[in-house]
Design brief:
The complex is a heterodimer of chains A (431) and B (186). With 431 residues, chain A is mainly α. Helix content of chain A is 77%, strand content 0%. Chain A is built from 21 helices and no strands. In chain A, helix 19 packs antiparallel against helix 20. The termini of chain A are far apart. With 186 residues, chain B is mostly helical. Classes of the chains: A mainly alpha (431), B mainly alpha (186). Chains A and B meet through helix 1, helix 2, helix 3, helix 4 and helix 13 of A and helix 1, helix 2, helix 3 and helix 4 of B.
Chain lengths: 431, 186
């Protein structure tokens, strides 16, 4: 291993390990490496990176989608979602357990974050599932797993960041996430169905009856969220709006929806705005640090060296993807998804493109392996969320999530062998 | 959480810390306003294009500046609120004194990095102004204006770090861990 790679690695590990804030660790690693190893004008490159990385029209979508999610959290929309789905899951073995999954998939289509999805859906389902006597393992596990759909089903914060860093179309990435997202949801539902068919005691026997009027009302309750989803995805897919524009209108619609549902209060707006600033500042500052580090790594020729080394091993593309999967799942045990992407992308993206993979495909692959990181201990945000909601032990929740982790791995294998799952929709996009 | 500290501290220091808190709040309010206008500008662009076939010409350029401005101005506030994430694996396992020392190290370290960023961005602003650098857009916006907002944001962050460091030192090792509010942890 050469001296530049070693310097960057050691600095990064020491700083992150001593619990220096991630964004600052990245800035510092980049600045120190650059001044130690090169004669470059550090101050100039440092300041330019801080400015260029965030002076970005595509990245503007990020706070607006975060605001949209924050606003929806503060409305009764999630409660309506539960009531609206309830009559329709009665036919499926495992009934209300599927609301965890379908609810998360639907909520994911208006929110870009995985912990927010798990928290919102968990708040409305977990108590009810417990009261009705559903198996705790299965209800916690399915929620932990399905919450990760927030990352894959557009709009997705992870895909915005990937698009900005990899210079890929965010619109294409969003649309590419739909089929794999539905596939993962389908796998989760099939697993729940199979478990309940094998051991019927996991779910209560009594089926709730609903009359026609209730069923019709259920459609009405699903209306607000459906309109939002149709608008956001429809406008991007048809080429009417860029993701940033869809985000702006989505943010406006979320305020209007809150008004219609009677949840538009000053306190809600202030709360949503505070949440938006905190989350966006946290994420974007990490992006600024990572962009500087990416520039520095390029000056130090680190990506080229790693690519050269991996190239010399003459791995088959599948082996490369298998190694990358293991690498990211391992990292995911300790790091959050966004930090993982921003730190590794300058090195891994050229590798996979060189091996013949499509960059949009790689974005979806990365999102899926990051989803796994969300539900693996010791650091797994969705586990923390469910722990916060239920007070159950982290180990128990992590155990409950294991089958869902393997199902996501299965999905990763499926998109690797059949990349068409990812590329089919973007290839048919109008723009 | 605000940097209120025990009654023993001097009134001048307490006043200064309070001022820094208010400054961070001001940054957050500016950030929110910029967010509002950015959203409005983009909605106006879509409306103009869809209904009148026109464009604002500046929506792309200015929403980029707006994003950078809203993020940097929000940094001080989000730092105080513990929103920035860090890996707390080692930190959680330390006893009071070691925890205190590590916290002091982390704060001093990020203070240095943040101060350096201020100096470097200051240079950037001065250079852009001296060379009359403008954006390659029809609006030809002088770049030093949006860049100066970044500087303001980084300055607020630096002050907020000083304020947290002061509060930490006043809290002493015995209270530092109890008073810890880094909720944005991994």
């Amino acid at each position: 291993m050469n001296i530049s790679i070693l310097t960057v690695l050691i600095l990064l590990l020491c700083l992150l390990g001593s619990s220096v804030w991630i964004a600052m660790s990245l800035l510092a690693t980049a600045g120190i490496s650059l001044s130690l190893l090169t004669e470059m004008p550090v101050a100039k490159i440092w300041a330019q990176s801080m400015w260029n990385s965030l002076n970005s029209w595509s990245l503007a979508a990020l706070p607006m989608f975060i605001f949209l999610g924050e606003m929806i959290l503060r409305t009764r929309m999630s409660g309506l979602l539960f009531d609206g789905l309830r009559p329709f899951v009665q036919m499926i073995p495992g009934r209300l357990l599927h609301i965890n999954i379908i609810g998360s998939a639907i909520f994911a289509a208006v929110s870009g974050s995985s912990p927010a999805t798990a928290a919102t859906i968990g708040k409305i389902t977990l108590d009810q599932l417990k009261k009705d006597g559903y198996d705790k393992q299965l209800s916690h596990g399915s929620l932990a797993g399905a919450g990760t759909l927030g990352l894959l089903i557009p709009p997705s914060i992870v895909l915005i960041i990937y698009g900005v860093l990899a210079e890929e179309s965010i619109g294409q990435l969003f649309i590419a996430g739909i089929v794999p997202g539905l596939m993962v949801a389908g796998l989760y539902m099939s697993y729940v169905i199979a478990r309940v068919m094998i051991s019927p005691e996991l779910a209560p026997v009594k089926r709730e009856g609903f009359d026609l009027k209730t069923k019709l009302m259920a459609f009405v309750k699903l209306l607000p969220v459906s309109v939002l989803i149709l608008f956001i995805l429809g406008s991007i897919y048809s080429g009417m709006a860029t993701p940033s524009e869809a985000a702006a209108i989505g943010a406006l619609l979320s305020v209007i929806a809150a008004g219609i549902l009677g949840d538009l209060k000053w306190s809600n707006l202030v709360g949503a705005m505070k949440g938006t600033i905190k989350t966006s500042a946290m994420i974007c500052f990490i992006i600024a640090g990572a962009s500087f580090l990416a520039v520095v790594m390029a000056y130090l020729k680190i990506p080229a060296q790693v690519a050269g080394f991996i190239g010399s091993l003459e791995l088959s593309p599948y082996v490369l993807i298998a190694i990358l999967t293991l690498f990211y799942v391992f990292l995911g045990c300790f790091l959050d998804g966004i930090s993982m992407i921003v730190m590794t992308l300058p090195i891994t993206l050229p590798l996979v493109v060189q091996a013949g993979f499509n960059p949009v495909w790689f974005g979806i692959f990365l999102t899926m392996v990051i989803e796994i990181g969300q539900i693996t201990p010791p650091v797994g945000f969705n586990l923390f969320v469910i722990q916060g909601l239920t007070g159950d032990k982290l180990e128990n929740i992590a155990m409950a999530a294991i089958p869902f982790m393997f199902l996501t791995l299965l999905a990763v294998a499926l998109i690797t062998v059949f990349p068409v799952i990812v590329t089919i929709l973007p290839s048919k996009m109008i723009v | 959480m605000t940097t209120e500290s025990s009654g023993k501290t001097s009134p001048v220091l307490r006043f200064l810390l309070k001022c820094i808190d208010r400054l961070s709040d001001l940054g957050a309010v500016m950030s929110a306003l910029i967010f509002f206008f950015m959203t409005l500008l983009i909605i106006a662009e879509v409306a103009l294009r869809t209904f009148w076939g026109k464009s604002t010409e500046i929506s792309g350029e200015y929403s980029g500046y707006a994003l950078a401005a809203m993020i940097y101005l929000g940094l001080g506030f989000s730092f105080r609120e513990g929103a920035h994430i860090r890996i707390t694996f080692v930190r959680e396992r330390l006893r009071a004194t070691a925890f205190f020392i590590l916290e002091i190290f982390c704060h001093v370290f990020v203070l240095v990095i943040s101060s350096l960023s201020c100096i470097f961005v200051w240079d950037l602003v001065i250079t852009s102004k001296a060379r009359n650098l403008t954006a390659y857009t029809p609006a030809e916006t002088p770049l030093y204006i949006p860049q100066a907002i970044i500087l303001a944001g980084m300055a607020i962050l630096t002050l907020q770090i000083i304020s947290r460091l002061a509060a930490l030192i006043m809290a002493r090792p015995s209270n530092a861990k109890a008073a810890d509010t880094s909720s944005g942890s991994l």
